[in-house]
Design brief:
alpha/beta; Spore Coat Polysaccharide Biosynthesis Protein SpsA, Chain A; UDP N-Acetylglucosamine Acyltransferase, domain 1; 2 domains; nine-stranded mixed beta sheet; seven-stranded mixed beta sheet; 12 helices; globular
Length: 431
């Protein structure tokens, strides 16, 4: 039992989040909203809490203010508990004057903050994955095999495998080889009999590769040894892990449930819309392992003369005579009559505008926060506090893959329209 008590979780907040831009224009990647009311960071933090791991550090260096605010307002443990969730932003010190140079370097620079915690095990997680895992099973595999490092892996088919770092194991589950995004003959050489991890013969034939999830369990002393051996090793996946495989006991832990790396606009968009489907791959309604987030004490949503199906509606919304299909409607969304929302994510707002404020804005030709009347929004992501006027058509009518407005009020990435946080789209605009 003592082994589990001396575990510290380190959640990697990622770099500048360029692949999720413009959603990361004003916030760190883990602070990007998810599912109408959550943030990406809520997933790994909740997994930790549900696994009785309550000493959690989140490492960031870009736009960390909103992430820090969310964590400080959300995760408050009892004063009789040793639990905490703490953001560690990149800092300059005499012995470490540089910013984080990679995942391994980020952990190397935060070691001074945890070395006095009597830590024996470090659980390293990513801040932009969507999955539900009991980390106690992950840790059990680590301790049962007396591993120095344990890597969580997912079975992958040949089409998906080329986009991951692949691992090869012996018949006891010990990792003996690592190959980053192999193709052709190199890919075929990484095939593994995944029945040894509990997959059926049919599952093993369709998914014969082990893809790294980018999450690890390290023996603390071995982690320090690996990070100190070569200060030029900046990345876990490409440098530290291959080095560890050559000389240490590195084990694989198979994860067979749903897992999605939300690192791009397309993956973010698809993962969100799937949440609104009748049988989503990730279920927020699991009461045994809930996903926690900030308690906002908002009123119930008001829905008047609306036609809504296959959609998620968050708290505090005012929806008047709108039509919605396959969409996410976020907190405090205000959407006016005869507006159509299809296959879209509306992240909502941080504040309620009063009727007086709305009237003043309208008199100045400024739309209210939300979406005005007679507008159409298809295949789009509307970030928080955006103002979409009346008679607006966000439909990507020319099927453009990549474009953006000169004033930055809208972008198109991978064919998906994105209206950034606080941006304004005037009445009558067609995109």
């Amino acid at each position: 039992m003592a082994q589990y008590e001396n575990v510290v979780a380190v959640i990697l907040g990622g770099g500048a989040g360029s692949r999720l831009f413009p959603l990361t224009k004003e916030r760190a990647k883990p602070a990007v909203p998810l599912g109408g009311k959550y943030r990406l960071i809520d997933v790994p933090v909740s997994n930790c809490i549900n696994s009785n791991i309550t000493q959690i550090f989140v490492l960031t260096q870009y736009n960390s203010a909103s992430l820090n605010r969310h964590i400080s307002r959300t995760y408050r443990f009892s004063s009789f508990s040793t639990g905490f969730v703490e953001v560690l932003a990149a800092e300059q010190r005499l012995d470490s004057p540089e910013w984080f140079q990679g995942t391994a370097d980020a952990v190397r620079q935060m070691i001074p903050h945890i070395r006095d915690w009597r830590v024996n095990t470090v659980l390293i997680l990513s801040g932009d994955h969507l999955y539900r895992m009991d980390y106690r099973q992950f840790l059990k595999r680590h301790f049962d095999t007396n591993a120095d490092v344990t890597i969580s892996v997912v079975p992958a088919n040949p089409q998906d495998a080329t986009g991951f770092g692949l691992l090869k194991t012996d018949d006891r589950g010990r990792i003996i080889e690592f190959n980053e995004k192999p193709k052709g003959d190199a890919l075929e050489a990484m095939r593994v009999d995944t029945t040894q991890f509990g997959l059926t013969e049919t599952e093993s034939q369709s998914r014969p590769f082990l893809a790294s999830m980018g999450i690890y369990v390290f023996n603390y002393e071995r982690l320090i040894q690996l990070l100190d051996e070569d200060k030029e090793r900046f990345d876990f996946g490409g440098e530290v892990i291959p080095s560890a495989i050559k000389k240490l006991n590195v084990q694989a832990h198979l994860f067979k449930d749903y897992w999605e790396d939300i690192g791009t606009i397309r993956s973010f968009y698809q993962a969100n819309l799937d949440l609104a489907s009748p049988l989503p791959k990730f279920d927020f309604f699991n009461t045994e392992a809930p996903i926690y987030t900030r308690s906002r004490y908002l009123p119930p949503s008001k829905v008047h003369a609306c036609d809504i199906d296959n959609s998620m509606i968050s708290e505090g919304c005012i929806l008047n005579g709108m039509y919605a299909r396959n969409s996410i409607i976020g907190l405090r969304s205000r959407i006016d009559e005869n507006t159509t929302i299809e296959n879209s994510i509306v992240m909502g707002a941080d504040i309620f505008e009063s009727f007086e404020e709305i009237k003043q804005n309208v008199s100045r030709g400024k739309p209210h926060i939300g979406i005005g009347q007679n507008s159409v929004v298809r295949r789009a992501i509307i970030d928080k506090n955006a103002r979409i006027g009346s008679n607006v058509r966000l439909i990507n009518q020319h099927n453009v893959e990549t474009a953006e407005a000169e004033n930055g009020c809208w972008f198109i990435r991978e064919g998906i329209i994105i209206v950034p946080k606080t941006a304004m789209i005037p009445d009558g605009t067609v995109i």
